């Protein structure tokens, strides 16, 4: 075969020209675009790696945006809580000033007014918003968290920033935590509110003469005779004194007992017996029981985190040596004298039976209960009436979720009963029939919205619970929601079913027939006139619809409440009571407690004093202790905000480092190395020129060159 020049040309130029042209085009494209490839087909591995890194950068961008947004809100929360702390410090300073005995009534009034201004400022801080979103409403960011009356309207939801796969960081503090949170390390402390003086020093028991202008407060070393008095100067024979004790232990068990003491026993011995009723033993105290400087009984729970502790006591003595003070039904003491001064000055209609009150609350006794001596009644008192509403004063707390016997969980912060909570989960099932509500009976008494008196009873039964208004003659089933509908098992009855009955009775919508249809119809009709519900702090409340002032009254209590016979059961549940005042408690109700503090200053009370003003005022001294607890709570919450801000800052810094690292890696994968590309371009250009030079020479070849 003859070799021609065209064959040389084609062999050297045809193949190499196409290849070099493509390589030159590619390297120029890389230099122009700055990218190694343009399409997946250019380099599948590089394209896949680039897409993965792009996704990573997109995720990091979301993290940065989320953390930046969260940090803004968290930082603003930090600023607001700084102001909170400063404002509360000022309020505490004013309370300390108010506690000074040198303050005049005018000065106290001025301090009280300043405290009310501070209260308004705290409410304004609580309603702080940023970009139209309230800081302390939980996830309900469009709802104003604090009403004018201090009620919290938000929820306990958490706002969280996205920090990556399966990683989030909360950046808000809900008002539920700040204003209604629970401090599981706090011990509940309660106090009586009737000041007790040494009657032996004040009166000459024989003549009745008043020896003191100012009474001498009782001390623990004083005797029972010093506390309860006498009607002669002889302590022989010794009088028998009886103390009727009611309350609830920190574990939620109800107590009801009668303690007998004599004249020469000391008050310290009585306090010891009270402690034993709450569970104190020679080897272990679960409560501390003491007297304050005004002779009032103070009980401190030594178990942290419980809000159950409650106390009530009334004392009685028959100066004739008879048995009038030793009763089974506490209502039998109603005819006694509760004003010792009347016994001494001869104006009492019953000078021999003296009944001493330790707690007064201003509550009206229920229908049929003792009425002459308010402090005699514990849990048969009428709900507090205000305008169109009736409200109980004892929160319904699920027992198992409010003790320190187990590590605290989220449930401990919301242990109040809800409409779906079973009554058996709150009641003390150690009373009555063990471990069941079967056989328990509640009494409802008062007046309905039309002003008519009623006395109803609710009978809990495993075979089906009922209610009646005629002493059990005509019973109406309390229907459950099963299919078919039947009367609810005692231990399955919920608060909603109980409140449905209350609502029907108070609005006077009573079933005509004992049928499911009539029951549902009357329950529905009753809701058109009134609503019975649980408040945010677990208390039962009735509100009449369409009126500013209701005619209704209501009391609800265990039917054996007044029975002090030996072995008699205590109440399985209490709803409203003439109980001790709360000084400190694990559960926070921020603005309610602030209001209590200011009320104490407005009433000019250094200590609880049921003889004047607001009977349930805790006093300025106790307000200072309560303020200390509130400040600690806010400080702990503020610390949480600080940790959240720090976590968000660290996340932001980490995201920025990851972004730089990922961008660097992406650049190494996809971006053109201009130096390398320029060198490659130069080499390709040289190769191309060499190829062209060679082709030029080949094209000049002839047979003469080979001769």
Automatic annotation (TrEMBL):
Residue stretches making up the Flagellin N-terminal domain: 16-139
InterPro entries on file: Flagellin, Flagellin_N
Organism source for this protein?
Sulfurimonas hongkongensis
Under the heading Pfam families, the entry gives: Flagellin_N
MF terms in GO: structural molecule activity
Q: What is this protein identified as?
A: Flagellin N-terminal domain-containing protein
SUPFAM superfamilies registered for this protein in UniProt = Phase 1 flagellin
A GO cellular-component term linked to this record = bacterial-type flagellum
């Amino acid at each position: 075969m003859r070799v021609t020049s065209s064959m040389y040309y084609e062999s050297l130029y045809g193949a190499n020209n196409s290849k070099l042209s493509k390589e030159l085009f590619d390297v120029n494209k890389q230099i122009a675009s700055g990218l190694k490839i343009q399409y997946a087909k250019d380099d599948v591995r590089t394209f896949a790696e680039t897409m993965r890194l792009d996704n990573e950068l997109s995720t990091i961008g979301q993290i940065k945006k989320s953390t930046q947004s969260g940090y803004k809100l968290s930082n603003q929360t930090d600023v607001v809580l700084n102001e909170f702390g400063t404002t509360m410090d000022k309020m505490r300073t004013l309370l300390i000033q108010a506690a000074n005995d040198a303050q005049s009534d005018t000065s106290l009034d001025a301090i009280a007014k300043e405290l009310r201004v501070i209260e308004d400022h705290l409410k304004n801080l609580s309603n702080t918003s940023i970009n139209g979103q309230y800081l302390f409403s939980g996830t309900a960011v469009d709802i104003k968290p604090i009403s004018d009356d201090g009620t919290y309207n938000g929820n306990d939801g958490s706002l969280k920033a996205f920090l990556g796969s399966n990683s989030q960081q909360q950046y808000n503090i809900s008002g539920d935590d700040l204003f209604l949170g629970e401090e599981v390390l706090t011990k509940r402390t309660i106090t009586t509110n009737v000041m007790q003086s040494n009657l032996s020093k004040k009166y000459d028991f024989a003549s009745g003469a008043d020896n003191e202008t100012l009474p001498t407060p009782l001390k623990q070393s004083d005797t029972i005779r010093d506390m309860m008095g006498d009607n002669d100067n002889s302590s022989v024979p010794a009088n028998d004194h009886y103390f009727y004790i009611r309350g609830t232990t920190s574990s939620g068990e109800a107590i009801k007992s009668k303690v007998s003491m004599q004249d020469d026993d000391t008050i310290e011995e009585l306090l010891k017996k009270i402690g034993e009723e709450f569970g104190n033993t020679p080897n272990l105290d679960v409560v501390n029981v003491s007297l304050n400087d005004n002779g009032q009984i103070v009980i401190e729970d030594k178990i942290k985190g419980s809000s159950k502790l409650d106390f009530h006591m009334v004392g009685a003595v028959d100066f004739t040596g008879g048995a009038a003070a030793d009763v089974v039904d506490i209502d039998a003491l109603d005819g006694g004298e509760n004003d010792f001064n009347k016994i001494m000055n001869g104006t009492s209609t019953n000078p021999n039976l003296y009944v001493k009150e330790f707690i007064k609350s201003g509550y009206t006794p229920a229908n049929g209960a003792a009425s002459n001596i308010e402090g005699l009644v514990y849990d048969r008192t009428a709900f507090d009436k205000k305008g169109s509403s009736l409200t109980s004063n004892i929160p319904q707390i699920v027992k198992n979720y409010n003790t320190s016997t187990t590590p605290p969980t989220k449930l401990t912060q919301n242990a109040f009963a809800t409409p779906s909570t079973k009554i058996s989960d709150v009641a003390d099932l150690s009373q009555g029939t063990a471990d069941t509500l079967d056989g328990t009976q509640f009494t409802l008494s008062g007046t309905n919205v039309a002003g008519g008196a009623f006395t109803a009873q609710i009978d809990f039964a495993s075979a089906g619970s009922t209610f009646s208004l005629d002493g059990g003659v005509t019973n109406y089933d309390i229907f459950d929601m099963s299919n078919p509908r039947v009367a609810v098992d005692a231990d399955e009855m919920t608060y909603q079913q109980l409140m449905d009955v209350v609502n029907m009775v108070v609005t006077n919508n009573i079933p005509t027939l004992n049928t499911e249809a009539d029951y549902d119809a009357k329950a529905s009709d009753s809701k058109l006139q009134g609503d019975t519900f649980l408040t945010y702090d677990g208390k039962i409340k009735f509100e009449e619809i369409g009126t500013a002032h209701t005619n209704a009254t209501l009391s609800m209590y265990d039917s054996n409440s007044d029975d002090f016979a030996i072995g008699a059961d205590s109440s399985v549940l209490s709803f409203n009571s003439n109980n001790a005042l709360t000084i400190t408690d694990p559960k926070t109700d921020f603005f309610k407690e602030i209001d209590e503090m200011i009320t104490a200053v407005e009433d000019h009370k250094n200590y609880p004093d049921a003889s004047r003003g607001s009977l349930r005022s805790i006093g300025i001294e106790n307000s200072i202790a309560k303020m200390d607890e509130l400040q600690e709570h806010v400080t702990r919450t503020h610390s949480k905000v600080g940790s959240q801000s720090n976590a968000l800052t660290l996340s932001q810094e980490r995201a920025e480092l990851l972004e730089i690292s990922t961008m660097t890696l992406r650049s190494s994968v996809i971006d053109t190395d201009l130096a390398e590309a320029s060198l490659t371009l130069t080499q390709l250009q040289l190769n191309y020129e060499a190829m062209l030079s060679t082709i030029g020479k080949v094209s000049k070849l002839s047979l003469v060159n080979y001769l």
